[in-house]
Amino acid sequence: MSEDNVELLRRWIDAFNARDIEALIAYSDPSIELHSVFAAVGGAIYRGHDGMRRWHRDLEDAWGEEIRLEPESYFDLGEHVLSFYVYHARGQHSEAGVAMPAASVSRWRNGLMVYVKVYTDRANALRDLGLSEDELEPAAP
Question: Is 35 helix (H, G, I), strand (E, B) or coil?
């Protein structure tokens, strides 16, 4: 079942890169809790499908349409999926291009994402999970 969650996360990221909020919502439980550090200054928590729409607008306000994720690795942790990736974006107002390493921890139930937390420091994601990078085994590509 958890390998399916890795595949679902891959599809979720594809929808993110396509800027398709309705597809993202289709992969998300109505009670989703999304912790974002890139959509709002200082980070924010978005809840439910309406919260996801607000998150999507906040991302576009900050980054325009050029934001995308470049996945590096996925780790199947049973109930959770840990992913490492790089955010590529251009500031909407500054026009400065950025490439930011990041991590996310997502939890899935019945084929839908119920929780995701994004980290700008991968070590913090590992610490929250009680793991070290040496313990990780990437999921099949």
Answer: strand
